[in-house]
């Protein structure tokens, strides 16, 4: 497979007007879109759903890695997320984590702490996060 996008990078380009987008990473392709209720074709998840998916996947993977390293009996992690639109800084994300396995109260509490340390959580909750944007002809 020829790689159009460098590893660790993402390309998003319009595919079908008005909102369907082709998302390409080093090894994967998928569509993003808006739901029909917002004028899209609903060909893929909406952008905020992808942000939530990234947070949920990172949370679950981080807990799995930690439990494996500690040799804890973690059987399954399920993460449910919801974006709450607000005005200004009232915007929030609810994250509910279900942890299955024969874990002690202390282990469960430690996993909750670890969930807040996943890289995506740290990035999106960083108030100093800057996004550099420029127009390009390439």
Tell me about this structure.
With 138 residues, the protein is α+β, with helices and mostly antiparallel strands. The chain has 2 domains: 1-45, no CATH class; 47-124, GMP Synthetase, Chain A, domain 3, CATH 3.30.300. Helix content is 30%, strand content 26%. The protein has helices at residues 47-70, 105-115, 119-124; strands at 11-16, 20-24, 29-32, 74-84, 92-101. The strands form 2 sheets. The protein has a 3-stranded antiparallel beta sheet with strand order 1-2-3, with no helix packed on it. Strands 4-5 form a two-stranded antiparallel sheet. A hairpin with a 4-residue loop joins strand 2 and strand 3 (29-32). It is globular and about 55 Å long. The two termini are 22 Å apart.
């Amino acid at each position: 497979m020829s790689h159009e996008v460098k590893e660790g990078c993402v390309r998003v380009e319009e595919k079908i007007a008005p909102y369907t987008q082709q998302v390409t990473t080093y090894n994967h392709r998928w569509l993003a879109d808006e739901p029909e209720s917002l004028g899209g074709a609903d060909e893929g998840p909406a952008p905020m759903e992808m942000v939530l998916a990234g947070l949920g996947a990172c949370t679950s993977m981080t807990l799995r890695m930690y439990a494996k390293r500690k040799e804890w009996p973690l059987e399954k992690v399920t993460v449910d997320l919801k974006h709450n639109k607000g005005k200004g800084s009232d915007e929030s994300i609810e994250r509910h984590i279900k942890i299955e396995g024969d874990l002690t109260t202390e282990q469960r509490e430690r996993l909750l702490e670890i969930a807040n340390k996943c890289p995506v959580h740290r990035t999106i909750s960083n108030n100093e996060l800057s996004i550099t944007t420029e127009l390009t002809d390439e």
